[in-house]
Amino acid sequence: MFNFCTLFDSNYLSRGLVMYDSLKKHENDFHLYVFAFDNKAHEILKKLALDKVTVISLKDFESEELLSVKPGRSKAEYCWTCTPSTIKYVIEKYKVDNCTYIDADLYFYNSPKVLFDEMDNKSVLITEHRYSKKYDRSVIAGKYCVQFITFKNNIEGLKALNWWQQACIDWCYDRYEDGKFGDQKYLDDWTTRFEGVHVLQHLGGGIAPWNVQQYRLIKNKDNQLLFTTKQNLTNFVPVFYHYHYVRFYKNDLVDLGWFKLTKTIVEHFYKNYICDLENATVRIKQIDQGFDSGFRPFSIKESKRIKDKLKVLFKLITRYNLFDKKHFYKKSQIKKS
Q1: In 3D, which of 44, 30, 38, 76 has the Cα closest to residue 57?
Q2: Residue ranges making up the domain that contains 295
Q3: What SS3 class is residue 77?
Q4: Are strands 215-219 and 225-229 parallel, antiparallel or unpaired?
Q5: What CA dihedral angle connects 116, 80, 16 and 111, to 10 degrees?
Q6: Are residues 321 and 251 in the same domain?
Q7: pTM recorded for the entire structure
């Protein structure tokens, strides 16, 4: 069985539900441990009573060590701090022989079994960002992404996990400092620091807005979506896509971020994902009618990036289209493919 864990609060609840649904669609032999990072997420998840899911509250999870550093860290920094601790908690509490942390904003298009098969007898699996040249932040943010990271319950796996857990408790901030950044810059030297570490080679594990520019979307004879690398025309199936930075605003707008996305990628990936998020929100509101977590106010006083988008927003809002690198959409105009 594949054991997964993830963490999120009510702001990412719809993403977590969509991630779970996508995983369940393609893989049956798994269990997901969800660490609910606020009371609202915990209450709704318990009422949803999802099969293959165990919901864990902060009260049950947080250790004295974590609580001692919590006041000095932002919400995001504290989530990063907790990531290795969630994995260790699952391994120790539920006596499982493996655990994979996955971000809540992943979406599975095929079973991750192929990724674990590649890992074979290694004890730790890590994934590269594989940045496109234009977006390469590996020097600051790290070569590897803590989006999908596996540890086996053995000597090699626990050695790496215990080291990472303590490192994140000691220092985990949203800034680059002395070769560190958040929880993931720590992974840069793991292939030499620890034994039994495997770097994922399957390109379908870890498609993201910062690397999708390197690939071209195609279909095979069975109408299955495939990617091919632009450099050497290597075909591969998407296993999961990391929907980083998708943001919803209270006036029915969706922001897809600053990365260059082709209309084909938006049509075949983002549109369906946004619709699934909308459907997940409907499910949540059947339990909590007033639920509006995760929706941001859209104000002209926001960052310069948002202000720049406003210059073109109102000219084009009635059209479903891409406008250069500024990806704003009216949700009512997005229909699932």
Answers
A1: 38
A2: 245-333
A3: helix
A4: antiparallel
A5: -10
A6: yes
A7: 0.89
